[in-house]
């Protein structure tokens, strides 16, 4: 059992530790032909297209392991070993393997004869699109691979180790280490979140989005090249005066490369600007899978561009959508909302929660006890948030966390400063490399030293001694030595507790968990 001590009375609320999905699996059974009790390897069948081939399971030739399969055509023939495999529809797969040949013939056309891997069944394209390059003549073990895409209604495909395609030939071929791996879903991506692309079949309407409303006299949806947050366009949702109701645009697809994964957490974010929005749900993000989830942020009245993000758990269903929504009361005012730079990000699939969880309070401290989660021994801190004094559901007590708001002279983000020790760093308010929004901040050390971009946080009275989770995104280039680059929390000593990033990295999410001391302000 593990134990965690706290010096403050707090309300406990569950939060998910997110685990990314990043592994691949070979879907072929017995891919190296090592298993079997009869004359042929388990899970593989034979197919004779024409002629009288000889099929064998051999141990005198192999690429790896101790065995392979062999096809011999003494007289001209076409044949194969094959395996039927369950697949997902609209999915891209990579098939690969090794082939060795002896005296294998080919024809005059590029597709005729030879030994290759061939995919049959529910796949897109023509038959010649779904086979690897030919191996022929007398060739040592040769690696071949091919990417194929399944059809909309696909459920199975056949992977063939084939000798002779489009032409009856003679020769001998050995096959080994066959692989079939998922690559990505296709044709089902969340698209055009920046609203830069017009639907060619519906001029003025954003490509990839669908109009939806539950009231008559909908109002209008159109691309607006006069008002935008980034790029050169936004999407404008309009409700006419004296007509209450709602209008929205939606998509039902997920982000690349994972698509929609049942039980996974997604970040739905973007920028909203409003004018004259009165009553109703206002302008916001709404998702609908197993139910309607209205976002935590809903804008009314007149608002300049405002960044909004929501964390959503996807529930597999036959209906549902990601929606940019405008809902107003029936007033004399028109209601307008602009949406721009919408992003949908796959965060991950949560593990199982900790087991045997108990909490004890002795008047001065809370003691938490738990068993390891079934999918990993994850720190209990990632499952529990203390909500101190106020029932704060946003969790973000910093102003200007995305560095979008300028200071008075427009030289650096508002509420942030910088400080160097030793050689002075170059600090910049950067509009070329943001993770999201339009800006980020950067530090550049040419000669060595260290510095920080910081702000002071003065927590509300009574919240000192609580626990906090610090989260942000870091991108690096050629960082070496010292403590590296990190997002951290200190008090006057700016104590470093996290492991820094070194080298060159694209944007990487970092998280650090801290227990605040019972006094002071924090940097």
Brief summary:
With 523 residues, the protein is mainly beta. The chain has strands spanning 2-6, 11-14, 45-50, 54-58, 68-86, 91-104, 115-121, 137-149, 156-163, 169-185, 210-212, 220-224, 234-239, 245-251, 265-277, 282-288, 292-294, 301-313, 321-328, 335-348, 355-361, 366-371, 384-387, 417-421, 426-430, 440-444, 450-454, 467-479, 503-515.
List keywords for this structure.
globular; eight-stranded antiparallel beta sheet; Jelly Rolls; five-stranded antiparallel beta sheet
Secondary structure elements and their pairing?
Blueprint: E1 2-6, E2 11-14, E3 45-50, E4 54-58, E5 68-86, E6 91-104, E7 115-121, E8 137-149, E9 156-163, E10 169-185, E11 210-212, E12 220-224, E13 234-239, E14 245-251, E15 265-277, E16 282-288, E17 292-294, E18 301-313, E19 321-328, E20 335-348, E21 355-361, E22 366-371, E23 384-387, E24 417-421, E25 426-430, E26 440-444, E27 450-454, E28 467-479, E29 503-515
Antiparallel strand pairs: 1-22, 2-23, 3-5, 4-5, 5-9, 5-10, 6-8, 6-10, 7-9, 11-14, 12-13, 13-20, 14-19, 15-18, 15-20, 16-17, 16-19, 21-22, 24-27, 25-26, 28-29
Structure overview:
The protein is mainly beta and 523 residues long. The protein has 3 domains: 141 residues, Jelly Rolls (Sandwich); 139 residues, Galactose-binding domain-like (Jelly Rolls, Sandwich); 124 residues, no CATH class. The chain is 0% helix and 46% strand. The chain is built from no helices and 29 strands. Strands 3, 4, 5, 6, 7, 8, 9 and 10 form an 8-stranded antiparallel β-sheet that branches. Strands 11-14-19-16-17 form a 5-stranded antiparallel β-sheet, with no helix packed on it. The radius of gyration is 30 Å and the shape is globular.
